[in-house]
Specification:
The protein has four helices and six strands. By secondary structure, it is of the alpha+beta class.
Length: 130
């Protein structure tokens, strides 16, 4: 049951916003032996113009959550989508390349769906680092 695994989270997972889903997934992955963080992909704010510009050192399509499994270094990427937000082509390409390279990739529309996918792959049983 989700509430037992995530006591600090609200019980109504269907109404979580993207930031709340992201926080829940980070806590869950951390508990299951991953070192993960929220990847900041925003641009650089130019105070003179009052506008944002693309970060020239950035990489297109990087997922919202990235990291690795502590036990074996397997890379994980989770793109979080909430509401009407949809997967962009560059995000899909990044996740496809990650899977082809042997990493673990997810698109999470809510926490419960992410957890079901994670556990459906048996990842909650593999290489736990408690």
């Amino acid at each position: 049951m989700i509430a037992q695994k995530h006591d600090q989270l609200p019980l109504d997972f269907g109404t979580l916003k993207a930031g709340e889903i992201t926080s829940a997934i980070i806590a869950y992955l951390t508990k299951h032996g991953f070192k993960v963080w929220r990847q900041n992909t925003s641009g650089i704010y130019e105070q003179q113009t009052g506008r944002w510009r693309k970060n020239p050192q950035g990489c297109n399509g990087v997922p919202d959550i990235i990291g690795f499994r502590l036990a074996d270094g397997v890379f994980v990427g989770v793109e979080v989508k909430a509401g009407r937000d949809t997967l962009r082509d560059d995000q899909k390409q990044f996740l496809d390349e990650l899977k082809q390279a042997g990493g673990v990739a997810f698109v999470a529309y809510d926490f419960a769906q992410f957890q079901q996918s994670f556990e459906g792959r048996g990842l909650h049983l593999q290489h736990r680092h408690d």
